[in-house]
Amino acid sequence: MSTERAIREGIDEAAETVGSVWPIHSFVTANPLSGFEDEPFAEAVPRAADRLGGRGYPSPETFRGALDEGRIDLDLLDAELAERGYEGDPETLLERMETAGESGDATAGETEDSAADPTERADRVLTKWLSAFLDEGRAEWSMPNREDGFYEAFRSVAAYDDEVPEGVATDLPASPIEAVKSVLEPYPEGRWNAVFEAQFAALPGWTGLLKRRVADGGAWQSAHPITLEGYLAVRLALLDAFDADIVPAADSNDAGPGTADELADAFLSAWEASYRGELVERVATESEARAGTDDASADERPAAQLVFCIDTRSEVIRRHVESTGDYETHGYAGFFGVPMEYRGYDSEVSVDACPPIVDAQHRVSEVPTDDDARATRDRWADLREAAGEVIETLKSNPATAFSFVEGAGSGYGVALAARTLVPGRVSDLLAAAGDSAPDDHEFCEPDVHRHEGSDEGLPVGLSRDERVEYAATAFELMGWEAFGRLVVFTGHASETANNPYGSSLDCGACAGNPGGPNARALAAICNDPEVKDGLRERGHDVPDDTVFLAAEHNTTTDEIELYDGDVPDSHADDLARLRADLATARENATAERVGAPTGDGSTGRGGSAAVNEAERRAGDWAETRPEWGLAGNAGFVVGPRELTSGLDLDGRAFLHSYDWTTDADGDALEAILTGPMVVTQWINAQYYFSTVDNAAYGSGSKVTHNPVGNVGVYQGNGGDLMTGLPLQSVRAAADEPYHQPLRLSTVVHAPVDRVTEILADNEAVAGLLDNDWLSLTVVDPTRDHRAFHYESELEWTPLAESERVEPPAETSTTPAAADD
Question: Whole-model pTM?
Answer without folding.
Answer: 0.91
